[in-house]
Amino acid sequence: MFNPATASYAGYYLTPFKAAAPSFAVEAIAAPVRDSSELESVVAALAREPNGGFIAMPDSFLIAHRAEVTSLAARHRLPAVYPFRHFTEVGGLLSYGSDQLDNYRRAASYADRILKGEKPSELPVQLPVKFEMTINLKTAKTLNVEIPSKLIALADESSAARWRGRSRRGRSSRRCRWSGSSTPHRLTRTVCAAFARA
Asked: Which of 52, 59, 74, 79 has a CA between 20 and 30 Å from the CA of residue 143?
């Protein structure tokens, strides 16, 4: 699910997702939502699919409408994976993505280097190095989705009660770099496999 106007990069997500989907025996269907009036109909259409679910892209439109998106998914009993923890904090089932706070902290060091005279064009491009997974077990129970214990053990935070904003493991998310580590890809495969069996 994504808004084409605010997620012009959607192809970078859809192409590998569609390529990987057959290996999990699932069909990848693009679900564009152009404005908030389309959210209900798109989620309802996804819910009509047998064994349906959706993955929300990191999209400013979906972030702004996260409460509505997660409540629609719950109302239609549709399991969903979201890109950031603030989706699970408002009732989303599972989130997996880069740690936004870590990205902002690292951006401050870049600003400091620029203010000290370094040229921005000479600074290397930074990729996210800290990823986190959160699971809302209350939502899983409501949706009657059994989350494998292995997935719960890998999560940085899982919550069965009211969201308290504290991590089960503190803020010690797994750190990894895209080059030289398979952690993000291994976790993504585990998440997809868990939903393919649900």
From this structure: 59
User: With contact defined as beta carbons under 8 Å apart, do 92 and 73 qualify?
Assistant: yes
Q: Give mean pLDDT, residues 181-188.
A: 42
Q: What does DSSP say about strands 131-136 and 157-159: parallel, antiparallel, or unpaired? A: parallel
How far CA 96 is from CA of 6, 9, 26, in Å, comes to 20, 18, 19
DSSP state, residue 116:
T
Encode pLDDT of 27-54 as tens digits: 898 999 999 999 999 999 999 988 889 9
Compute the distance between CA of residue 91 and CA of residue 67 in angstroms, rounded to an integer. Answer: 8
CA–CA separation, 76 and 78 (whole Å): 5
**DSSP code of 160?**
S
In order of their start, the domains of the chain are 10-113+126-197 (3.40.50.2300)
